[in-house]
Amino acid sequence: MPKTKPRSPKPTRPTVRGVPFDVVTNRRRRLHVPHRSRHVPAGEWRDYPRPVPEAWARIARDKGFRVHGRIRDRYHVALECDACGGLTAHKSYTLRTAQPRCGACAEADLGDAARAASLTFLRRDDRNHHYGLYRAACGHVIKRQFEFVERVAAKLTDVRCEKCLRAREQDEASQRGWERLGRDPQGNANYRMYRHSCGHSQRVARVNMAWDQVKCAACGGAWNSTASFIYLARIEMTSRGIHLLKLGFSKTPVKRLKHQLGLPRSAKVDLVRVLPMASGHVARAQEAAVHAILRRRHPDAVVPPEVYAGILNVASEVYEAFAFDLIMRHLDRIEAAHPPT
Known about the structure:
The chain is of the alpha+beta class and about 350 residues long. The chain has helices at about 55-60, 90-95, 105-115, 145-155, 160-175, 205-210, 255-260, 280-295, 325-335; strands at about 20-25, 30, 65-70, 75-80, 85-90, 120-125, 130-135, 140-145, 180-185, 190-195, 200-205, 230-235, 240-250, 270-275, 320. It folds into 4 domains: about 20-100, no CATH class; about 115-155, no CATH class; about 165-220, no CATH class; about 225-335. It has 9 helices and 15 strands. A hairpin with a 5-residue loop joins strand 4 (about 75-80) and strand 5 (about 85-90).
């Protein structure tokens, strides 16, 4: 059989990487290229030796540019911005029929927005022209939408570094005997996958891990077997004449008051006393005994639920402010019987 001539490998097109909107002409000047032309190799953005029509030059002056020269082919020109002096590649059709955009000014705007958001703009993303790469205050490089950075600059939201978040989540987990494995396989942004020290892996709400409210489904460790607290809090809303006391127990009293009672932001909350208990079971039993005594012996100190409706999302265990000394004496008794270990 006759030998077939081997095919030569298909040449690969070079791509513009690193700074995709900035290439260098033979005059060693930066040339900003629109995102739809980023596939064009840098070597093709060379001077095109043809004169610039006077009509093009006149149109450019009217639109705030100077035609620096023709580049690549007969359809493209390099426009020099009157405001900043930057060069931007555009089709001559765009120059004649629309208002060209200066790539250098656009990049400067991105830098200004980044600085207002406490970021450093590095470059546009190679694959999506709506995104850019930034250096955060922590030193890590993050990828964000330009519109999002503008919202951060306007103080409408905040920026978060994923690397720092992962490190913080791992630190929280390790303090509680867990290891962070990764994001939730079910796609819930509020959950993560963790591995317990016993070897069991499960998905856990990130906030529960942060507050140490998690139970291993393999080896146990329920809330009533771990350390807990009895707390007394003073709650005031002077605009509505509300002055109340809340007696309760919780593994995390601060979280209980801030996030679980449904208190409005205008409410003033003071955590006036916290008693550590050996377990949730002990805390619940001691707290329940105090509530029983107060209801039986001091019914006038019990606040009806309708008084704090819409302020607290509980229906009991709320007392009048004058019962403060009375409740404190009961807590003194509990503390003496259950000293901290």
